[in-house]
Amino acid sequence: MNPKKVSSRLHTIIKSALVAALLPIILIYIVVSKPDYRIINGAAHIVLPVVNAVGDFITWPVRAGGNLVRNIRNISNLEQENEELRTRLDMALANKNECDVALVENQRLAHELDIKRNTGYETVVADVILDNTAINHGTFLIDRGTHDGLKPGMVVVSFDNKMVGAIMDSGIHYSRVRALTDSGTNIAVRVAGSDVYGFLHGNGSTNPTVGFFNDPKFQGGKGTKLITSSISGVLPPDIFVGTMQNKSDVNVLSPSDLSSVIVFKFNVNEENYK
Known about the structure:
Layout: H1 3-33, H2 37-113, E1 122-131, E2 139-142, E3 155-157, E4 163-170, E5 175-179, E6 186-191, E7 197-201, E8 209-212, E9 225-228, E10 240-244, E11 250-251, E12 260-265
Antiparallel strand pairs: 1-2, 1-12, 2-5, 3-4, 3-12, 4-5, 6-7, 6-9, 7-8, 9-10, 10-11
Helix pairs in contact: 1-2
């Protein structure tokens, strides 16, 4: 580009800007010295548009810069919000994955342990209102009774489906439960995942003992899972009872571990509990 042409255009722009800047001064002079309103009105129609145009031209960089700053700020805020949403989404997906893994693992363990969920039974939720645990005895009272359809012999479990005892007797609005820790407890059990049967005997502690009768060679060890057996015709099968601590002792829940329980309602022979 010819430098002379650029210089000539720049010179013209500067002169136009100076003339536009002088027009308000001339208008003020006319207003003060010769206040002819016809001249003022006529000049205003010329001066004001020119002044506005010059003002817009001069302030354009400032306005453009302000808009640019606002746009940058908005973009920054959007990026921050997107980052927060991504973080929340990642956390939600991680929690979902953990739940899915836990569900699959739970199903796998239930299958391996041969434990049923007993969903075929009608259930009643009850609160533990009194713990009668004493030496060699382990009983407790719950706030449900015959009014709720409860009968002696019905199985009582914890909320994680672990057997804690069986109902001994019932009143209208309460029932007494014999815990697995009670010295009078003697229930049929089976080693989960096998055909080895035995009987669990309470002894007043949180570690009742078990003896196996159909396989004398079987030696239970720490970690062996026991579930109920229907071989005696008293209990529903496949309810988790406890885990063996050694060759004879079984860790079970005691009444002191409980605040609320679930009762499985099923047909029982009450003669076994009189």
